[in-house]
Amino acid sequence: MINILYIASRKSGCNFFIIFLTAPIVIWVVLPYKSPIFARFMNSRLLVFTLFLALTAVSCNHGLNKVMKSTDYEYKYKKAVEYYTNKQYRQSQMLFEELFPIYKGTPQFEDLYFMYATGAYYQKMYPEAENLFRGFLDMFPNSTKAEQMEFLEAYTYYLQSPKPQLDQTNTIKAIGMMQTFISTHPGSPRNKEAENIIIKCVNKLEIKEMEAAKLYYNMGQYKAAGIAYTTLGNNYPYSDKADSYKLSVIKSYYKYATLSIQEKREERYVKVIAEVNDFQDRFPESKLLKEAERYLTLSTTNIKKIPK
Fold it and tell me: Who is most buried in 39, 71, 168, 179, counting CB within 10 A?
């Protein structure tokens, strides 16, 4: 037997249907998963639960519609704040959007703007949120909420940063804005998080460049791979993979030399030797040093074999 209890909530303006399922829990354990009885039992629960969700949504919308139809702006503002406080951001956004031009220039406008902007953020409407954060800062540069809004503006770009294979415009913007935040707010408690975000973003850019260089190598475009790995090493000299990038430079130029016409091989093996010497200077303690030096030996030997 299924009992449904109807409750009207004055606080939220919503009507709720609370469902009490009195079927014994043993049914869930004893009945086989594919039993027709079990299926009917599950379907009945699913039907009632779906009905519950639908009735709740309709009732909540009814409460919002009642507020929207009101001509009392103070009442609407109060309800918008109430929806926001209860994390019902969709409802609060609809009211704040209507109240935006009404309250502009009033003492309440700063708080309204703040809730409107953060409401978009909490709903993951990041492009809209970043524009609202910027608008808030332009209008209230001396607000006590300005620091939080600056951080959130930068953070929205970080949240929109895609996986490394895709365009990294938002990643680069996030790095620049977080660096600016740290510079303009040297004592902020948010700086540690800002630094961590910068590190994550830089790592993502590094991965993108590394995968591009690897692709050149795998496609047999060894000169392009050598240039790409060189750029990668120069861009991220303090990476824990810096010695690996340098070894990839050596491998790429060695492959390029071996595939070259005879007239070009010597100068290109000399290039490999120069890269190995640079590896020895920069990474004398690297575990990859012996492998790098192997290409020094190979290149020297191959130069001797070239007919003069």
Answer: 168
Among 51, 45, 50, 56, residue whose Cα is nearest residue 20:
45
Residues in the chain: 308
What's the predicted TM-score (pTM) here?
0.76
List the structure tokens of 16: 């709720």
- Token reading at 2: 């299924």
Of 40-54, 125-139, 144-158, give the lowest mean pLDDT range.
40-54
Q: Where are the domains of the chain?
A: 1-69, 219-308
pLDDT for 51 beyond 90: no
Q: Which helix (H) or strand (E) holds 18?
A: strand 14-21
pLDDT, tens digit (0-9, with 9 covering 90-100), for 235-260 = 999 999 999 999 999 999 999 999 99
**Whose structure tokens read 């990839």?**
248
Do the Cβ atoms of 2 and 44 come closer than 8 Å?
A: yes
Q: Are 280 and 293 in contact (CB under 8 A)?
A: yes
Tokens representing residue 255 in the block: 């492959």
